[in-house]
Amino acid sequence: MLDVAAATRTSTEQAVRELLLAGIPRAHRLATWILHDSVAAEDAVQEAALLAWDRRGSLREADSVEAWFNRILVNVSRAELRRRARRAPITEMEPGSDSAPESLGQRDELSRAILTLTADEQVLLALRFGRDLTIPLIAVTTGMREGTVKSRLHSALQHLRAALDAGRRVEESLR
Amino acid sequence: MTDRRSTSEPDRELEGQLRDHYRTMDDGSGPLLAARVADALDRRPAPSSRLGLLTGRRAFAGALAAMTALVLIALSLSPLLLGSKSPAGPDASASRLPNGSASLSEVPSADGSATPMQMPPPDPSAVLAGALTSGFGPVSSGGAWWAQSDGFWVAPNATHAVGFSPWPGSDTVPPAVFVLDQKHIWTVTLGSGSLNPYGGQGQDFDHLKAVVNRTTDGGLTWQQAQVPGDYPDSLLTLSFVDQLHGFLMCSGSSPEMTSTILRTDNGGATWTVVATVGPVPPGANLGGMFTASDASTLWAGAQVEAVGHGHPLLAVSRDAGRTWSDVPLPGNEGLAGGFDVFMEEAPVFLDANTGFVNVLNSRGETFSDVFITTDGGRTWTGQHVPFDARHMDFLDTSHWLAPGNSSVAVTADGGKTWKTVRDPTIGIGAFVQLEFLDPQNGYGLFEPNGERGHYYLYQTDTGGSDWNLVSSAH
User: Fold this and answer.
1) Strand pairing partners for B240?
2) Measured between beta carbons, which residues in chain B are less than 8 angstroms from residue A155?
3) A 138-167 residues with CB < 8 A to B
4) Is B36 on the interface with A (CB under 8 A)?
5) ipTM higher than the 0.85 cut
6) Sign of dihedral through CA atoms A57, A61, A62, A64?
C-alpha cells in the first residue's frame, strides 16, 4: 500500500492540481454569492485553495475534488462572514451608507436583507439558490444533516422575508 | 426547494428573486484568479508542520476522505494502557466495499450471516473507534489497526471503547451507533429499498429502510437485521440497556410526521414496533435525543431540528415506549425544543437513577442549563452554566468537563465553579468532544481552526493540561 501510494502520488497530485484549478472560476462565483464581495471572494478562494493543497493527501478520489474543495471553501467563507460579524454588525448598514462595502455587487434591498442573516443562513441561501445544489449536496458541503439544512433554509427564508419587510417599512416611513 | 413548508406562492417568488440575484453577481474574474492560484500553489512549500506530518501518515494509511468525524464512546473503566503517543502502524491493503467505502473487512452478507474479518493481530492498548460516513479506509492508532465495517471503526480487544458523535461541533445529530462495551456494538445503516431518505417529499416519495448491524465480538464479525417500517426524514437513534434489550427511536423531523419506537429483546436480531407517537400536540412526535436509562424508562429530547415541530423539550416513557409524557425541567416547563432552546446530546444516565440533561439556550449569548436527577428522573434540579457547554462529559454529579477553544473547562462542584485547563502546545482550535474515564484520564477530539472536518484524537492523563496525540482523521 505504501509503495503503491508513493508510486502514484505524483500523478495523483497533478490530477488534483488540474481539477482544483479548473474549478476556480466556479469557486469564485460561489464565494461571491456567499460573501457578496468579489475581492473578498478572491481572497477566500485563494486561502481555500492553499488549504486544500496542503491537505491533498487526505483526498481519496480525484473525481471528488470539487465537492471536497467546495467544502473547504464554504468553511473559509463562513469564517470570513463570522469575522465580519464580529468586526461590525451588519445591521448598522443603512441604504447608501458609507459604511457599506464599496464592492457590494448589487446594493439593493435583497442584498441588504441577505446581509442581515447569520453566516450559516447566507451560506445556505448561496448554495441553494446560487449554486442550485440539492439538499443532500448542501448537507455534504456544509457538514450539516439534511434535516438541519431543510430547517435552516426554511428559517433563512423566513428571516429574509422579515428583513425585506422591515426594510420596506423603513423606506416608507422616510417618504 | 424540497421542503414542503416553503412551496407557497410568496416563497416561490422570493426563491426566484434569489436565483436572479445570485445570477447577476458574477464579475468574470474567475479565470484570472485561477492563474493567481496556480502561481500560489507552485510557490507553496511542502507541508512541514505537524499537520503535514499527519497528512503523510494518513496517505500511508490509505487516506481518509469525507470523514466528518471519528466515533468513539468511552465505556470501559479499566486502567489506561495507551502506550504510544503518536500514530503508527503496519501497512495493509484496502478492499473496496459495494457501498463505496474501503475496509480491511468484508461486508456482512444480506441474509444476516456473519463474515469473518481479516484482522491484524489485536493490540490490547488500542481504543475502539468508529465513523459514520462513507469513503474512508483503514487507519492505525496506538499501534493497532482499526478495521471498518459499514462505516464503523473497531479495534478488537480494545481496553477502551470511546465514541464520538458524528458531525461533532456542528449540528445536533444523534449517533446512529451504540457501543455497550468493547464487544457489543450496534449501528444503523440504510437498507435496500431506501430511496431519497431525506428528500423531504413525504412518504409517497421518500423511503428510509433501516438496517441494524450488530457485533458481539468487538467488530470481528457483524450481522444485520432489517427493521420493519419506513422512516423517511427521521433521525434514527439506538440505545441498549444490556446485551439483549435495546430500543430504536425513529424521530420524525417535520411537524406532520410521527416518531416510532421499536425494541429488541434478542440483541438486535429482530425488532418490533412498540408505539408510534404524534404528530399533533398534545401527542406531538418525539425528539431524536434518545436514550434508555433502564429496560422500561426511555427519554427523548428535542434537537435543533425540532424548530417549529413541537417536540417536547424532554419527554419520558416509563413503560418501555408505549406512552409518553412531558418532563418538567425547572424553568422550562412545557417548552418545545427549537433553535433557541434545544439539546445537542441525548440525556446521559450514569445508572438508572443518576442522569443529566444539557439544555442549550441561544436566546442572546448561548449558555447551558444542566438538569440533574438522582432519583431516576422523578425530580430534577437545574444548574446554570454561563457559557456554551455543549457536548459536556459528566463523570459524576460533581465532576464535569466541557470542551472549549484549545482548552477544557472543568468543574468539581457540579457546575458551580469552573476553571479552564489548557495545554499551550496543542495549537489553535477547539475540542469538540471529550470522553474522560476519571478527572485525570480521558480522550479529546480536537478540530484545528480552519480545518473543519479534520479531527485529531488526543489522550491525557493530566486532566487536560497535557495532551498526547493518538490519531487523526479527515
Assistant:
1) B246
2) 307, 339
3) 139-140, 142-148, 150-151, 153-155, 157, 160-161
4) yes
5) no
6) negative
Residue B200 phi/psi, 5-degree rounding, is 75, 15
SS (H, E, C) chain A: CHHHHHHHHHHHHHHHHHHHHHCHHHHHHHHHHHHCCHHHHHHHHHHHHHHHHHCHHHCCCHHHHHHHHHHHHHHHHHHHHHHHHHHCCHHHCCCCCCCCCCCCCCCCHHHHHHHCCCHHHHHHHHHHHHCCCCHHHHHHHHCCCHHHHHHHHHHHHHHHHHHHHHHHHHHHHHC
Q: Please, are residues A155 and B307 in contact by the beta-carbon 8 Å criterion? A: yes
Reading the block at residue B54, the C-alpha cell is 499527519
Which one-letter amino acid corresponds to residue B449?
Answer: N
What is the CA B219 to chain-centroid distance, rounded? 19
Global confidence as pTM: 0.56
Q: Nearest to residue B162, comparing CAs of B357, B359, B449, B437?
A: B437
Q: Which residue in chain A is spatially nearest to B234 when comparing CA positions?
A: A147
Edge-to-edge strand order for the sheet containing B419-422? Answer: B393-394, B400-404, B407-411, B419-422
Rounded to the nearest 10°, the torsion over CA B83, B84, B88, B92 is 10
Q: What is the pLDDT of residues A30-85, one digit of tens each?
A: 898 888 888 888 888 988 888 778 767 656 565 577 877 887 888 778 767 765 65
- Among A4, A24, A59, A72, the strongest candidate for a mutation testing the B interface, having the largest count of B CBs within 10 A, is A24
